[in-house]
Amino acid sequence: MDQRVKPAPHEIRTARADNPKTMERELAAQLGISEAELVAAHCGEGVRRIEPRVNDVLLGLEAVGEVLALTRNESAVHEKIGVYDKIQTGEHAALALGEQIDLRIFPKIWTHGFAVEKRVGDEIKRSLQFFDDAGDAVHKVHLRPASNVDAYERLVAALVSFDQSPTLSLKGIDSPAAAGEPGSAEELRDRWSSMTDVHQFFGMLKALKLSRHQALRMVGGDYAWELAGESLEAMFNHAASDAVPIMCFVGNRGCIQIHSGPVSNIKTMGPWINVLDETFHLHLRMDHVVELWAVRKPTKDGHVTSIEAYGANHELIIQFFGQRHEGETERDDWRFLAENLPRTLSRTAA
What is residue 348's predicted lDDT score, i.e. its pLDDT? Predict the structure, then answer.
């Protein structure tokens, strides 16, 4: 289909009916539209547009009980089963800090929202789905058998939009232009070595006008070293077999979702490596990982080590740490695992 001429809503609905087993994201790509446009085309047919008022959504979800929270990017899908609790609202950032569902949310990115009902056999699947300006998914909430459907319906009723149009107005996402000269390797190393908290990392990059990937390439092998491709699967297998609890971060422009704890059921299926545990599911496209890095960041509690996977455009796909809380030193078993993964021949740690 010519991507310059988008299908009409009725054509999208027909394509959906003709391809019932095709995943929404995949079908949207085949039709040359965004996933949000695919969902919007079904308004009035199991789909209601809702206002993406993030703070109201988070507070309302507390009463819904057990759900599945899903955050993804192009290469990784992160799913957690649990409840939304320990909510901290905010205009620029909001948090869910529950034992299972742990989120960092950027509300201004949540542009389009939908309440979706989909019949599967005799069952009705219910979800809330949120998208950015470009129609890409930022976060989804899927109800489970234990969910409180009445609380869900009250939340949807409070958020339902007057606009129930089956079409969307979308915007492209511009890459931020670098302003001014980037910092030097000497400036980077000086600032890097002075960090006392991992959360200072983003501010350092912004001040030096460097991307995350540029900083890893520049800082030197005592702080960042490139790992061999097989290290990713090795990390999962060692963490599972040695019961090393990890933190796994998957994010997009509007949401970052975190798993903290052990992983055990690791399955490789084609290009995907999957974690299929009771409350945590991860699906990662290993063939999308172009570079894999181990990174050391100083903190007041000693340095911490992350494993970071990057895609073809140097975008961060997924990030791993050893499980730890603020004020704790890094786990010895995680540090040993990270520092002994196979490295590339071109870069080694000091």
Answer: 42
Other Cβ atoms less than 10 A from the Cβ of 217: the count is: 16
Residue closest to 79 by CA, chosen among 127, 13, 118: 127
Instruction: Classify residue 288 by its DSSP letter.
Output: G
pLDDT confidence of 326, banded at 50, 70, 90?
confident
Q: Give Cα 71 to chain centroid, integer Å.
A: 4
* Tokens at 24, concatenated: 């929404």
Give exposure, 229-266, as e/b (b: 16+ Cβ within 10 Å). bebbebbbebbbeeebbbbbbbbbbbbbbbbbeebeeb
**Residue 186 to residue 203: CA distance in whole angstroms:** 17
Alpha carbon distance 235, 238 (integer Å): 5
pLDDT > 80? residue 345: no
Residue in the block written with tokens 């001040």: 207
Sign of CA dihedral 338, 257, 298, 330: negative
Distance in angstroms (rounded) separating the CA atoms of residues 17 and 1: 17
Residues found in the chain: 350
pLDDT digits (tens, 9 = 90+) for 253-285: 999 999 999 999 999 999 999 999 999 999 999
In this prediction, residues 196-223 reach a mean pLDDT of: 94
Q: What is the DSSP string of 219-284?
A: H-TTTEEEEPTTHHHHHHHHHHHTT--EEEEEE-SSEEEEEEE----EEEETTEEEEE-SSEEEEE
pLDDT at 4: 61
Q: Is the pLDDT of residue 176 over 80?
A: no
pLDDT at 137: 97
- Smallest Cα–Cα separation from 127: which of 109, 107, 144, 142? 142
pTM greater than the 0.85 cutoff = yes
- End-to-end, the C-alpha distance of the chain in Å comes to 53
Q: How many C-alpha atoms does 45 have within 13 Å on its Cβ side? A: 13
